[in-house]
Design a protein that fits this description.
The complex is a heterotrimer. Chain A folds into three domains: about 230 residues, Rossmann fold (3-Layer(aba) Sandwich); about 180 residues, Rossmann fold, CATH 3.40.50.300; about 70 residues, no CATH class. Chain A is about 30% helix and about 25% strand. Chain A is built from 16 helices and 23 strands. In chain A, strands 13, 16, 19, 20, 21, 22 and 23 form a seven-stranded mixed beta sheet that branches. In chain A, a hairpin with a 2-residue loop joins strand 1 and strand 2. By secondary structure, chain B is mainly alpha-helical. Chain B has one domain: Orthogonal Bundle (ABC transporter involved in vitamin B12 uptake, BtuC), CATH 1.10.3470. The chains are: A alpha/beta, B mainly alpha, C mainly alpha. Chains in contact: A-B, A-C, B-C. Chains B and C meet through strand 1, helix 6, helix 11 and helix 13 of B and helix 4, helix 10, helix 13 and helix 14 of C.
Chain lengths: ~500, ~375, ~300
């Protein structure tokens, strides 16, 4: 019997169709993958099942019965649980309070009883949790456990996980998969949303593939090659693999020397004795789970936060106490993680957003803006980086994630940086744009620029970095040439075990 | 079945941002008409009395100018602050301090003669307003105190300071114990444009300020930085703009402009210090900024409309025997309607059928 | 200072602090849900005006109180419709509410300026009020002072140990997440705003029916704004609001203290005291940025509209 069946689901948003006549069936106890690249409509479909979003057309059958899910509460009554990609947790509340909020009133009446249940359930599924801890003190992996346990407490029949592995270390992923197998053995269906093909092949019984909002195929992942899966996801005309030559690099441009930093922000991570360098003509990749000090480190490199003078050097010049615009004059280009609301001003035009970091060159003179040159600069970015936009007057917020990212990276590259710092360069970006962005980074490296990439996407880091390391709890692992570091070892580094030896050379990625 | 929902526009509508103030004025007029009807007045006659009759002669237009000048000066300064998302509600206090500081110098120079007296008085007025603005900037940048609350508190303190002055040390010794200062000397009084009217040269101060601020905001990097800071603080920090300096700049500029407005008012149409030197210009200027779309030219027009509500309130009091507080009522209503209509800038209203999520509804193309 | 004066000062402190407690508690609930309503001053004035008018017209001060609460709620509905349903800028909308409320209350109350009514009589609590000193300071007040304590206790309990309190906090911290797990964000926010309006209206009634039984334009004299500062000062904690309100109460009646001590000072200069004290308080709280960040509702002032 099918646990859930979707027929002909269509959902339109102004300017785009998120789902077009989508069908989906998941059997009892089945682990079903929903595959698709960014923007294929996976998240919208999940929100429809969970009742957060109403479909414009189509029907849903739950255990053979036609239902119309009125909202998340109704979905939970039916036995549908959902683990969101961006956790729907409340940081200033405790684990138990968070869980109580999503349970029916009767079940959360006694907090003590609830806490005991949380302990019991989390231990049964191998995901230890302390119900009394505040969520903001938990690691990302632990926060995900809260989300999962929250679902398990309500006798869940279908568990939906939206990109659950993107925030985990490889070891944490293994633990998660064990839990999911245990659940499936107990008869719970699992809908696993991902764009990571290897994981899907390792875990899932069946897969439905979405492309541009439509179902582009069904398959049994274990019997299908990664190549075939990828083709279904992106179509025929996009190159799938990129093979970049590794580079050695030249003199160090960026040097971080024994950098320790404690922020005023109570939610921030403290950096401890971080030292590394990025050479001109190389790409250094820093892996790590979000919230382990990446943000703080990047702020100190960009100058948005300052430290002691002798902790950050650009080409041997101490810059630790300099402001961002002074560091930009020395050759810094920076692509922050937040595209809208930091890298670009959402309500301003692309023209103004070009001026945002380009104001130091010839775009202004004696504090007066040269509008003609600003326009030419913006137009140049659009053309050179193939940005699809209504024109230089389009508001930044009207661009898709991929196009905006191309614009921001283009803006930085066209200023001829000597050091380009990129945070999550292709996060949430469609494959076409991602390939273009990686190409540009490699090209920049080959022109002799020092490039620092911080990302949670390990595959990407392996693909473009010449040297690699990981950050955990504000400390940096050793830095080594990428081809000397196995995925397993990087995983240990991401988990904070910096002394793990690389004794399984066969696991190393070539 | 149809229902009406809001749908976010992919891009903000420029057209709507210009139409919204017009809608707001129309809605205010309609509500005003209904209000007058409820009060037993002929709505058309009452609206005519309030909005048209003040402007039926040249005298009326010059009186409008008398009120437009301080409103525009305060509003153009506030615009700078609001552009930077510095919620300075303190134009009222800066206006009062400008009047008080300039007035104090004018009283000290009662016996002085010469054309240097007036510029000096104006300078000290603007300086007093600037210092009052500086206090807010200091509290915000040095101590991180919320500027909305500090400026409101400073407004009340400024008002009490003025009251203390006119009830105490600055009271006219020959004034029969009224809480008023002596009338300023001719050398400390702004020249009028024509002896028949009260309109004085402060209107040129206002227009000059509008031109300067307009150039600043549209042509200079400083103006661009102010806009970025207001739109997106993280982007401003990312780009390396100096947040604290920008905050200081907008608050000092606004303080000086509001102070100039205050000193122009006391050395112009009032001619002395009294407890009523501001009929709430500093607060009305907030509405002017929003209504004028945070644009210098828009602010000039919006100032005229708000100036009219003051004159209309006086006319309604005289001709219709209605309370003068009608002015505040109309001003509040106008801002409310404006904020509501502004929704249309980033959303559109769509009528769409309710979702057919149950039953065997199938896509006609597939059927 | 003699003992009786000291007793009187404490008694007056509690009276002066009461409207601040009412406004600040209402605003605290509102802010906990993530909505910053800067329209307190306007709602208080409307409550004061309509409360007074209703009391004059009906002759019942009790009906005045009900009218004041309703007036505050009507004003807050206006705010909620704009700020929640129409996702307008909360700062601007709150200012609009204050300007509108000031204008409307002045307009409606114009015919009632200078009228006198009896107001609400004190209600000394039997037995307790006979205790020396404490009886006079704590138990010889009017009913609204006791009501402010009841409201304090209710709100304290609500946020400490009820699901409702948890829900309001969740909405104020992360409306997207709250919506995702099925909490009706808009309804919770409407409720919180309405509660804030009712409390502000009640505070208005206190001013025009109890504290100084009369109506004059702008009679709240910035109490709505001071209460807003109080909420920040109290780090969104009910017990600290109580404490802060009484401290402000004490600052506002400094003239009594000074007169008692035999000083002469300009009433205008003394009137600056509570406002100056507010600024000092704002500086003190802001100096501990880290702590302020931990206690501020994370979504405060950010418009939110669920996508459907």
């Amino acid at each position: 019997m099918n646990q859930i069946e979707l027929n002909n689901i269509t959902k339109r948003y102004p300017g785009c169709v998120a789902n077009q006549s989508v069908d989906l069936k998941v059997a009892v106890g089945e682990i079903h993958a929903l595959l698709g690249e960014n923007g294929a409509g996976k998240s919208t479909l999940m929100k429809i099942i969970y009742g957060v979003v109403k479909p414009d057309e189509g029907a849903m059958r739950w255990q053979g019965q036609t239902v119309s899910v009125k909202g998340p509460a109704h979905a939970r009554d039916l036995g549908i649980g959902m683990v969101f990609q961006h956790f729907s947790l409340f940081e200033t509340l405790t684990v138990a309070e968070n869980i109580a909020l999503s349970l029916p009133k009767a079940e959360s009446a006694s907090m003590d009883l609830l806490k005991q249940r949380i302990i019991d359930v989390s231990e049964h599924y191998g995901m230890k949790l302390d119900p009394n801890r505040y969520v903001h003190t938990l690691s990302i992996g632990e926060q995900q456990r809260v989300e999962i346990v929250r679902c398990l407490l309500q006798d869940v029949k279908l568990l939906i996980l939206d990109e659950p592995t993107s925030v985990l270390t490889p070891q944490e992923v293994e633990t998660l998969f064990k839990t999911l197998h245990l659940l499936s053995d107990e008869g719970c269906s699992i809908l696993f949303i991902s764009h990571k093909l290897d994981e899907v092949r390792a875990l899932c019984d069946h897969a439905t593939i979405l492309k541009s909002g439509q179902v582009s195929g069904h398959c049994v992942p274990s019997e299908t090659t990664t190549e075939e899966l990828a083709r279904l996801m992106v179509g025929d005309d996009t190159p799938l693999t990129e093979d970049y030559k590794k580079a050695e690099g030249d003199e160090a441009f960026l040097s971080i020397v024994d950098l320790s930093h404690q922020s005023d922000d109570p939610f921030a991570c403290t950096l401890k004795n971080v030292s590394f360098e990025v050479k001109a003509g190389e790409i250094l990749g820093i892996a790590g789970v979000a919230g382990n000090g990446q943000e703080e480190l990047l702020n100190l490199i960009s100058g948005e936060d300052t430290s002691a003078k002798e902790t950050v050097f650009f080409a041997k010049k101490a810059v630790g106490n300099l402001t961002p615009e002074k560091r930009r004059i020395l050759g810094l280009g920076f692509v922050p993680e937040e595209r809208l609301g930091r890298g670009a001003v959402p309500d301003m035009s692309l023209q103004d957003n070009g001026l945002l970091t380009g104001y130091q060159g010839e775009l202004t003179k004696n504090g007066i803006i040269n509008t003609g040159k600003v326009k030419a600069f913006a137009q140049n970015i659009l053309e050179r980086f193939n940005v699809k936009a209504a024109g230089i007057h389009a508001q930044a917020k009207s661009l898709s994630g991929g196009n905006l990212q191309k614009y921001i990276i283009g803006r930085e590259i066209l200023q001829d940086p000597k050091l380009l710092v990129c945070s999550h360069p292709t996060w949430g970006v469609d494959i076409g744009a991602a390939i273009l962005i990686r190409h540009e980074l490699i090209k920049l490296r080959d022109e002799g620029c020092a490039v620092l990439v911080v990302s949670e996407d390990i595959d990407e880091l392996y693909s473009i970095s010449d040297r690699i390391c990981a950050i955990c709890d504000g400390e940096l692992s050793p830095v080594a040439p990428t081809h000397d570091v196995s995925i397993n070892q990087l995983g240990m580094w991401m988990a904070g075990d910096f002394h793990a030896l690389n004794n399984e050379n066969e696991g190393a990625v070539k | 079945m149809l229902n009406i929902t809001l749908e976010k526009r992919p891009s903000d509508s420029k057209l709507m941002s210009y139409l919204s103030p017009i809608f707001a004025v129309i809605l205010t007029l309609i509500s005003g008409g209904l209000l007058f009807t409820a009060l037993g007045q002929d709505p058309f006659h009452a609206l005519y009395t309030f909005f048209i009759s003040p402007l039926t002669d040249i005298y009326g237009w010059t009186e409008l100018g008398v009120k437009v000048a301080p409103l525009t000066l305060c509003a153009i300064g506030l615009m700078l602050c609001f552009k930077a998302r510095v919620w300075n509600i303190g134009a009222e206090g800066q206006f009062i301090l400008g009047g008080l500081g300039g007035g104090y110098i004018a009283l000290e120079l009662m016996d002085a003669e010469g054309f240097w007296v007036l510029p000096l008085v104006l300078f000290f007025g603007a300086l007093s307003g600037l210092l009052w603005g500086a206090l807010t900037a200091l509290l915000k940048t040095r101590f991180g105190a919320n500027e909305i609350l500090t400026t409101i508190m400073l407004n009340y303190i400024a008002l009490n300071w003025l009251l203390y002055g006119v009830h105490g040390p600055l009271k006219d010794p020959d004034g029969f114990n009224f809480p008023e200062s002596a009338l300023f000397s001719d050398f400390a009084t702004l020249p009028v444009l024509s002896d028949d009217y009260r309109l004085n040269i402060s209107i040129f101060f206002a227009l000059f300020a509008v031109a300067v601020i307009w150039a600043l905001m549209s042509k200079t990097l400083l103006g661009f930085q102010i806009s970025v800071l207001g739109e997106d603080k993280a982007a401003a920090r990312f780009a390396g703009f100096k947040e604290e300096r920008l905050i200081w700049f907008v608050l000092l500029a606004c303080g000086a402009l509001a102070g100039l407005a205050g000193v122009s008012e006391v050395t112009g149409s009032i001619g002395q210090l009294n407890p009523y030197i501001s009929p709430g210009y500093g607060y009305a200027a907030i509405i002017v900024v929003f209504l004028g779309r945070m644009h210098p030219i828009g602010i000039v027009f919006a100032s005229m409309l708000l100036a009219l509500t003051y004159m209309g309130g006086e006319m309604a009091q005289m001709d219709l025997a209605l309370p003068k507080s009608l002015t505040g009522l109309f001003q509040g209503m106008l801002l409310f309607y404006l904020l509501a209509c502004d929704l249309l800038i980033s959303y559109r209203i769509v009528r769409k059928p309710t979702a057919r999520s149950t039953g065997s509804s199938s896509n006609s193309a597939q059927a | 200072m003699d003992f009786e004066l000291f007793t009187n000062i404490l008694f007056a402190t509690l009276r002066t602090g009461t409207p601040l407690i009412l406004i600040a508690l209402g605003e605290m609930v509102c802010e906990k849900s993530g909505v910053l309503n800067l329209g307190q001053e306007g709602m208080v004035l409307m409550g004061a005006a309509l409360g007074f008018i209703a009391a004059v017209v009906t002759g019942h001060a009790g009906l005045g109180i009900i009218a004041a609460i309703l007036a505050g709620m009507m004003m807050s509905v206006l705010f909620a419709f704009l700020a929640v349903t129409l996702v307008s800028n909360q700062v601007a909308t709150g200012l609009a509410l204050t300007i509108f409320g000031t204008g409307l209350s002045g307009f409606l109350g114009a015919g009632y300026v200078g009228m006198a009514i009896d107001g609400i009589a004190p209600f000394p609590i039997p037995l307790l009020s006979d205790i020396p000193f404490i009886g006079k300071v704590l138990f010889s007040h009017d009913p609204l002072v006791y009501l402010s304590w009841v409201m304090f206790a209710l709100i304290f309990w609500c946020f400490r140990s009820t699901r409702l309190g948890l829900t309001i906090r969740a909405v104020g911290e992360n409306p997207e997440a709250a919506n995702a797990i099925g909490i009706p964000v808009m309804k919770v926010r409407y409720g919180a705003i309405l509660f804030g309006g009712a409390m502000a209206g009640l505070a208005g009634a206190y001013l025009s029916l109890v504290y100084t039984p009369m109506w004059s334009e702008g009679m709240s004299a910035g109490r709505g704004w001071i209460a807003l500062a109080l909420v920040v000062f109290a780090s969104w904690k009910a017990e600290r609001i109580l404490l802060g309100a009484y401290l402000f109460g004490a600052a506002s009646i400094m003239h009594l203290v000074l007169q008692g001590l035999g000083f002469e000072a300009s009433p205008n200069l003394l009137a600056m005291l509570p406002y100056g004290a507010t600024i000092i308080v704002l500086v003190i709280i802001a100096s501990d940025a880290a702590k302020a960040k931990l206690s501020t509702p994370l979504a405060l002032g950010k418009p939110y509209r669920p996508q459907v």
